[in-house]
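Purpose: get a first structural picture of the assembly so the mutagenesis plan has something to point at.
Setup: two entries, given in the order below. No constraints added.
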Amino acid sequence: MVGFASARVEKLIREAGAKRVSADAITRLNEVLTDYGMTIAKYAVEVARHSGRKTIKESDIKLASTK
Amino acid sequence: MVGFASARVEKLIREAGAKRVSADAITRLNEVLTDYGMTIAKYAVEVARHSGRKTIKESDIKLASTK
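Result (C-alpha coordinates, whole complex):
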Protein backbone atom coordinates (compact mmCIF):
# COMPACT_ATOMS: atom_id res chain seq x y z
CA MET A 1 0.00 0.00 0.00
CA VAL A 2 1.17 3.48 -0.89
CA GLY A 3 0.09 6.30 1.43
CA PHE A 4 1.98 9.41 0.40
CA ALA A 5 2.14 11.66 -2.64
CA SER A 6 4.84 10.46 -5.08
CA ALA A 7 6.13 14.01 -5.54
CA ARG A 8 6.86 14.30 -1.80
CA VAL A 9 8.71 10.99 -1.71
CA GLU A 10 10.71 11.92 -4.82
CA LYS A 11 11.62 15.29 -3.28
CA LEU A 12 12.93 13.53 -0.18
CA ILE A 13 15.16 11.24 -2.28
CA ARG A 14 16.47 14.25 -4.24
CA GLU A 15 17.19 16.10 -0.99
CA ALA A 16 19.24 13.06 0.03
CA GLY A 17 21.51 13.77 -2.95
CA ALA A 18 20.01 11.78 -5.83
CA LYS A 19 20.50 13.12 -9.36
CA ARG A 20 18.01 10.75 -10.96
CA VAL A 21 15.37 8.52 -9.40
CA SER A 22 13.46 5.64 -11.01
CA ALA A 23 9.67 5.53 -10.60
CA ASP A 24 9.98 2.09 -8.97
CA ALA A 25 12.36 3.47 -6.36
CA ILE A 26 9.82 6.14 -5.41
CA THR A 27 7.03 3.56 -5.13
CA ARG A 28 9.21 1.26 -3.04
CA LEU A 29 10.17 3.99 -0.55
CA ASN A 30 6.52 5.06 -0.37
CA GLU A 31 5.56 1.47 0.54
CA VAL A 32 8.30 1.17 3.15
CA LEU A 33 7.27 4.45 4.81
CA THR A 34 3.55 3.62 4.66
CA ASP A 35 4.17 0.21 6.28
CA TYR A 36 6.39 1.71 8.96
CA GLY A 37 3.90 4.51 9.63
CA MET A 38 1.05 2.00 9.93
CA THR A 39 3.04 -0.13 12.38
CA ILE A 40 3.76 2.90 14.58
CA ALA A 41 0.17 4.17 14.33
CA LYS A 42 -1.34 0.78 15.26
CA TYR A 43 0.88 0.55 18.31
CA ALA A 44 0.04 4.16 19.27
CA VAL A 45 -3.68 3.29 19.08
CA GLU A 46 -3.08 0.32 21.42
CA VAL A 47 -1.11 2.50 23.83
CA ALA A 48 -3.86 5.15 23.92
CA ARG A 49 -6.58 2.50 24.48
CA HIS A 50 -4.50 0.98 27.25
CA SER A 51 -4.48 4.42 28.88
CA GLY A 52 -8.26 4.73 28.52
CA ARG A 53 -8.08 7.44 25.86
CA LYS A 54 -9.70 7.72 22.45
CA THR A 55 -7.44 10.55 21.32
CA ILE A 56 -4.00 9.70 19.97
CA LYS A 57 -1.51 12.09 21.55
CA GLU A 58 2.03 13.01 20.55
CA SER A 59 3.37 10.95 23.46
CA ASP A 60 1.63 7.83 22.08
CA ILE A 61 3.42 8.27 18.75
CA LYS A 62 6.69 8.95 20.57
CA LEU A 63 6.38 5.79 22.64
CA ALA A 64 5.29 3.73 19.63
CA SER A 65 8.15 4.94 17.44
CA THR A 66 10.78 4.02 20.04
CA LYS A 67 9.33 0.54 20.58
CA MET B 1 11.58 18.46 9.39
CA VAL B 2 8.16 17.51 8.08
CA GLY B 3 8.02 16.09 4.56
CA PHE B 4 4.51 14.79 3.99
CA ALA B 5 1.04 16.28 3.78
CA SER B 6 -0.63 16.33 7.23
CA ALA B 7 -3.88 14.99 5.76
CA ARG B 8 -2.09 11.85 4.50
CA VAL B 9 -0.44 11.22 7.85
CA GLU B 10 -3.73 11.75 9.69
CA LYS B 11 -5.49 9.34 7.30
CA LEU B 12 -2.89 6.70 8.07
CA ILE B 13 -3.41 7.08 11.84
CA ARG B 14 -7.19 6.85 11.37
CA GLU B 15 -6.78 3.74 9.22
CA ALA B 16 -4.84 2.27 12.14
CA GLY B 17 -8.01 2.58 14.23
CA ALA B 18 -7.80 6.02 15.84
CA LYS B 19 -11.06 7.80 16.63
CA ARG B 20 -9.42 11.14 17.41
CA VAL B 21 -5.92 12.39 16.70
CA SER B 22 -4.16 15.44 18.14
CA ALA B 23 -2.39 17.82 15.76
CA ASP B 24 0.88 17.24 17.63
CA ALA B 25 0.60 13.50 17.08
CA ILE B 26 0.27 14.04 13.33
CA THR B 27 3.31 16.35 13.29
CA ARG B 28 5.35 13.89 15.35
CA LEU B 29 4.58 10.93 13.06
CA ASN B 30 5.34 13.11 10.03
CA GLU B 31 8.76 13.93 11.54
CA VAL B 32 9.51 10.31 12.38
CA LEU B 33 8.63 9.18 8.83
CA THR B 34 10.54 12.05 7.20
CA ASP B 35 13.67 11.24 9.25
CA TYR B 36 13.39 7.52 8.50
CA GLY B 37 12.81 8.22 4.79
CA MET B 38 15.83 10.53 4.67
CA THR B 39 18.04 7.93 6.36
CA ILE B 40 17.00 5.28 3.84
CA ALA B 41 17.34 7.67 0.87
CA LYS B 42 20.84 8.81 1.90
CA TYR B 43 22.00 5.24 2.19
CA ALA B 44 20.39 4.39 -1.18
CA VAL B 45 22.31 7.29 -2.77
CA GLU B 46 25.57 5.92 -1.31
CA VAL B 47 24.75 2.43 -2.58
CA ALA B 48 24.02 3.72 -6.10
CA ARG B 49 27.25 5.78 -6.17
CA HIS B 50 29.20 2.77 -4.99
CA SER B 51 27.77 0.90 -7.99
CA GLY B 52 28.79 3.73 -10.35
CA ARG B 53 25.21 4.83 -11.03
CA LYS B 54 23.56 8.24 -10.82
CA THR B 55 20.04 6.82 -10.93
CA ILE B 56 18.50 5.54 -7.71
CA LYS B 57 16.86 2.19 -8.48
CA GLU B 58 14.26 0.23 -6.54
CA SER B 59 16.95 -2.26 -5.49
CA ASP B 60 18.95 0.57 -3.86
CA ILE B 61 15.93 1.51 -1.73
CA LYS B 62 15.31 -2.17 -0.96
CA LEU B 63 18.90 -2.69 0.19
CA ALA B 64 18.91 0.58 2.16
CA SER B 65 15.66 -0.19 3.95
CA THR B 66 16.85 -3.61 5.13
CA LYS B 67 20.15 -2.21 6.43
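The beta strands of chain A are 20-21, 55-56.
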